[in-house]
Amino acid sequence: MMISAAQVLFDLDGTLIDPAGAITGGIGHALEVHGIEDPGPASLNALVGPGLAHGLASIPGVEPELIPALIDTYRTHYLERGMALARVYPGITELLTALAAAGVPVAVATSKPTSLARLLIDQQGLAPLLGGVYGAPEAESAAATEGKEAIVAAALAGEGMDPATTVMVGDRRFDLTGASANGLRSIGVRWGFAPPGELEAAGADAIVHDAHELAALLLPATTRTKAGTLTTETQTGTTTGAAR
């Protein structure tokens, strides 16, 4: 199977880049500083994907008035320590290189604030392979009310992408529902932070387990043959719904 995509939108954390504990560790640090009990690994992992203000509000003991201070503490920790832990997932650089060689425009739609997303992308050396970067508003009051749907819409408008020929690739239900709300097909990736069954329930058009499978969906075989390590397998991913 191949999903014909003239353009591709990618989520960032959990899709292109492995935070390697930078996000969950930073949130845990912020909770400890402000005297909030650690909710445990599963609850912290669930915070990777939605906007941070929205996710923090779901933690027992976090009152609305505390959220701005928690976010400030988290971001300070992230910039000073966490960001350096992040790594590009295996095969992603090669995939982005192959998409560029094939002339497929790509951009990023992330719930991370745009400025932080750009810093992370620059640090990881991906900036030359990506188009625009569209993230959450810098002001938390705005970010708390705007979901992934608004970010995907901004990316489509900013890049001049046609929803009918654009695919969203992400690791959480927020990416997939944000795509659906804007008329895009979506591909869920297994290597991120979705709990079992989430990608299927969110209606992903296809689900992949590694960059090889993702390349097989997005790139014609002739292009995959030129993509270095992406040619070692010809897996086709798992389809979960009819193409639309």
Automatic annotation (TrEMBL):
Pfam families on file: HAD_2
Keywords associated with the record: Hydrolase
Annotated coiled-coil segments of the chain: none
Organism, as annotated: Paeniglutamicibacter cryotolerans
EC numbers, comma separated: 3.1.3.18
Name this polypeptide is given: Phosphoglycolate phosphatase
CC per GO annotation: cytosol
MF (Gene Ontology): phosphoglycolate phosphatase activity; protein tyrosine kinase activity
Broadest EC class assigned to this enzyme: hydrolase
